[in-house]
Fold this sequence. Notes:
Layout: E1 2-7, H1 14-19, E2 27-31, E3 34-43, E4 48-56, H2 58-64, H3 88-97, H4 99-102, H5 110-113, E5 117-127, H6 131-139, E6 145-152, E7 162-174, H7 176-191, H8 201-209, H9 220-227, H10 232-247, H11 249-266, H12 271-285, E8 290-294, H13 300-306, E9 313-318, H14 321-331, H15 338-341, E10 344-348, E11 363-367, H16 378-389, E12 393-399, H17 426-440, E13 443-449, E14 460-466
Parallel strand pairs: 8-9, 8-11, 9-10, 11-12
Antiparallel strand pairs: 1-4, 1-5, 2-3, 3-4, 5-7, 6-7, 12-14, 13-14
Amino acid sequence: MLLTLSTTHTPATDLGYLLHKSPHKPQSFDVTFGTAHVFYPEATEQRCTAALLLEVDPVALVRERKGPSGDGGALGQYVNDRPYVASSFLSVALSRVFGAALSGRSRERPELATQALPLTARLSVLPCRGGEDFLRRLFEPLGYTVTATRHALDETVPQWGPSRYFTVTLQGDKPLSDLLSHLYVLVPVLDDDKHYWVTEDEIDKLLRHGEGWLASHPEREVITRRYLRHQRSLAREAMSRLLEGEDTGVAETVETSRDEVEATLERRVSLDEQRREAVLTALVEQGAASVVDVGCGEGKLLRALLQERRFTRITGMDVSTRALEVAAERLKLERLPDLQRQRIQLLQGSLLYRDARLAGHDAATVVEVIEHLEPYRLAAFERVLFEWARPGVVVLTTPNAEYNVRFEGLAPGAFRHKDHRFEWTRAQFESWARRQAERFGYGVRFVPVGTLDAEVGAPTQMAVFTR
């Protein structure tokens, strides 16, 4: 089984520091099922590739096997595809050989370990139970460009048709630890099998390596079920633990407290109300009838949209199921007349993952959302919104960092909200917005929201993208 990892980051040989494996010498490691070899087919300043080659010993596997499936007389235990395909053996090898990189640690390049890098992973033979469509449903929502070549069952007997084996290439800009975590979890999911007994310990592994992406993945239930070998009790416990952060009173209290801090800062200029009014005005000017509010939270904008009859189809999407429950309560969905209820729907999902439900709307609104994203995740958000959902109009707002000096009680350099990952100046925001407009075929104009200060601008900046 062969996995290659490549980067064009400059200098590309930094990949060796991240993997903790020197490009200048091959290395071999004993694993319970055989031997893992690491070597570098290429290592230049411009491009570096690390290869992980697994030699699986099928006879040793049978000797080590326990339980009812370990019948040493069964030919299938000795003659199978395990030595040649990516499977749970690869996950074990990644943990054994690239453990530091998998956990995001690097002694020599600590800052690079968390940085999004241009990465390409190639799996020479990957079994996909569910076919190419399922393969794409797993990796494309994570921001990868997927290339898959399906192999014939037997090239000498064409009538047998295609096999379930693919050569797969994944390309994306992300930290190396993210790529390795995705492979660690999803390769066994695609294979839909594991070479060892699955116990409660596997739940901890799944949640550890799925942290930050699994909870909001559109296929999270299938991933969980397959990863745990369809053991229902384990899958139920895993899903409960996976989603418990969204439903705990503590988390809700903390988030509410943070929101109150931000609201207190902005109350003097009534920004919350002014933002909604500015967004509604932009939507009306563009003649939008169907709107999806991405990151809708507790539904304040949705309520305003629902009061305008011109909006005939309204969709609210948020990653938090708890926020959607609050939105449903505030909108009184269960008590709405049928005609009103048919105009609006609430969906659980993430703006970082490709989702067909986002497509087909006249307009999308993204109000005070992007500043909560890690900067390296912006690339995934950009493609989801502008390339895949591709509404005719996008109305997006974010804080103007320059205006923060006007807020009493806000320390110099501090953000308005503790969960903000960044806050842009007007120049930074306009530069980002113009790049997206040019890249995805939109025009863009900028609208200040709130009291306009001659020196530092308005407290909120808004971009209206149209195509």
